[in-house]
């Protein structure tokens, strides 16, 4: 794909943000990184892109925001799938469920 504009709003210690960065890097998707000071001053861009939760990470794809790290990962896998890039989740339903289990555990217990 060409002419894709991908921006990530993140806060460097965030494991939720790390999840998104790792997915983009694994798939070799170019992106612009914007650091947010989420526990200090939130930028207007963050408030505008994630008005519900006002949290990072936010993926902004061609001007449109996607919020919530797991939803962002699904979006990335849905959008960048045609060019033989690796899949983030296995196609086998049981293996996919296992991956989701571990991701969910991190969300709930971290
Ligand atoms: N469920 C969210 C959690 C995101 C989250 O908790 N982000 C934190 C940083 S690690 C944040 O932006 N906190 C700012 C705040 O709570 O105001 C996701 O998976 O993306």
From TrEMBL:
Q: Can you say what this protein is called?
A: Glutathione S-transferase
Starting at the broadest rank, the lineage of the source organism is:
Eukaryota, Viridiplantae, Streptophyta, Embryophyta, Tracheophyta
Q: Which InterPro entries match?
A: Glutathione_S-Trfase, Glutathione_S-Trfase_N, Omega/Tau-like, Thioredoxin-like_sf
| Keywords, sorted A to Z | Cytoplasm, Detoxification, Transferase
Q: Which reaction does it catalyse?
A: RX + glutathione = an S-substituted glutathione + a halide anion + H(+)
Organism of provenance: Camelina sativa (False flax)
What Enzyme Commission number(s) does the record list for this chain?
2.5.1.18
Does the keyword field hold RNA-binding?
A: no
Domain of life, per UniProt, equals: Eukaryota
Q: Domain GST N-terminal, which positions?
A: 4-84
Assigned protein family: Belongs to the GST superfamily. Tau family.
Q: Where in the cell is it found?
A: Cytoplasm, Cytosol
Is Transport among the key words of this record?
no
Question: What is this protein for, i.e. what is its function?
Answer: Is involved in the conjugation of reduced glutathione to a wide number of exogenous and endogenous hydrophobic electrophiles.
Q: Which Pfam families match?
A: GST_N (PF02798)
């Amino acid at each position: 794909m060409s002419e894709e504009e991908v921006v990530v709003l993140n806060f460097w210690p965030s494991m939720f943000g790390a999840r998104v960065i790792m997915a983009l890097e694994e798939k070799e998707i170019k992106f612009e990184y914007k650091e947010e000071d989420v526990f200090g001053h939130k930028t207007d861009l963050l408030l505008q892109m994630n008005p519900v939760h006002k949290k990072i990470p936010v993926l902004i794809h061609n001007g449109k925001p996607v919020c919530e790290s797991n939803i962002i990962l699904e979006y990335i896998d849905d959008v960048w799938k045609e060019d033989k890039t690796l899949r983030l989740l296995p196609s086998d339903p049981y293996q996919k469920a296992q991956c989701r289990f571990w991701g969910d555990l991190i969300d709930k217990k971290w």
